Amino acid sequence: MNASQRPVPLSQIMPPLVLGGAGFSHQVHQNPNATQTLKVLQRAFQLGLRAIDTSAYYHPSEILLGEALSHPDMRNRYSRDQYLLMTKVGRITATEFDYSSAWVRKSVLRSLERLHTPYLDVVFCHDVEFVPEAEVMEAIGVLLEMVHEGLIKYIGISGYRIDVLAQIAQRARTEFGRPLDIIQNWAQMTLQNDRLAREGLNAFREAGVTVVCNSSPLAIGLLRANGVPVGDLGDFHPAPLGLRVAVKKVADYLDQIGESLAELALRHAMRRAQAFSSPDFRIATITGITSVAEVDENLRTAQEVLQVSSEPRWLWNDEAARLGDGDIIREKKDQLLCDQVHRILGEWLDYCFPSPGDDWDVTTKKPIVASL
């Protein structure tokens, strides 16, 4: 995967599961550190999970990942062409965005330095619904320049609003004469919200996109037994109280029958991704991982869904998935569980988080301050 070579279609190399770098940030972890990151990457790479998605916004994720990837134990074992690195530009803090040409270029160069890499496999414009569309087009133009310079291989956009992502993808194809390579949408191909499958995939495919990343299959940690994650920055999760209460009822129900909400949610998201994937249009699931135990748990869950082989490189090579009798039984059981979960969620099924919300001015890219 030398960046100077003409890249193959991203759909041919994107694995079904991607390690999310937000787990190494202050947003979702109380003490992100180099030791934790190195141990997670060592275990993930050993088991074949060798695609990473992060962002400059997930501070200090890029720095920690770069230190881990350049550690002798990693550098001497894995060459750069044995893993994928994806990051993002444009979002700086919770309330600060900069999509200008100068900042996009500076941000990419900084990411290259932080990650200790000569090129990036994918760069996304981060949370595009928060800024004017014209500014997104400007940023995409800069990323395309950097593709020609050999610093980036593939480009895309990320965000929550499916309609905004589809509109920008169509406009980008028209204005630049080529489609975006990839789109990332979060928390909308989950056990709680399936709008990405119904409202996004066809629109993205029509815009020429060949890879879609479904990030946050647990809805930023909402779909688990122990509540939303609280990092150094406090409780930032957008789920309202009613949804949190409904999810707690789901978790309690599943616990009573010996099932894990987090594992069921991940299996469900990966099955949905697999159902809509084809050789020329791939859906990848990005899962947040903060510990070696979570690596093992997520890989075990993914393996149940994708295939029965225990070959360590199965996620990287993405060999043909196949189901054994036990997997078919598990899938049928899961469908019954999902049906019950949906009944418990009731009115909260397919609920969408407001993004950016009524308190945000897209034109000024600033919060709206209520007048007294």
From TrEMBL:
<dbReference type="InterPro" id="IPR023210">
    <property type="entry name" value="NADP_OxRdtase_dom"/>
</dbReference>
<dbReference type="InterPro" id="IPR036812">
    <property type="entry name" value="NAD(P)_OxRdtase_dom_sf"/>
</dbReference>
<dbReference type="GO" id="GO:0005829">
    <property type="term" value="C:cytosol"/>
</dbReference>
<dbReference type="Pfam" id="PF00248">
    <property type="entry name" value="Aldo_ket_red"/>
</dbReference>
<dbReference type="GO" id="GO:0045290">
    <property type="term" value="F:D-arabinose 1-dehydrogenase [NAD(P)+] activity"/>
</dbReference>
<dbReference type="GO" id="GO:0070485">
    <property type="term" value="P:dehydro-D-arabinono-1,4-lactone biosynthetic process"/>
</dbReference>
<feature type="domain" description="NADP-dependent oxidoreductase">
    <location>
        <begin position="16"/>
        <end position="306"/>
    </location>
</feature>
<protein>
    <recommendedName>
        <fullName>NADP-dependent oxidoreductase domain-containing protein</fullName>
    </recommendedName>
</protein>
<keyword id="KW-0560">Oxidoreductase</keyword>
<dbReference type="InterPro" id="IPR020471">
    <property type="entry name" value="AKR"/>
</dbReference>
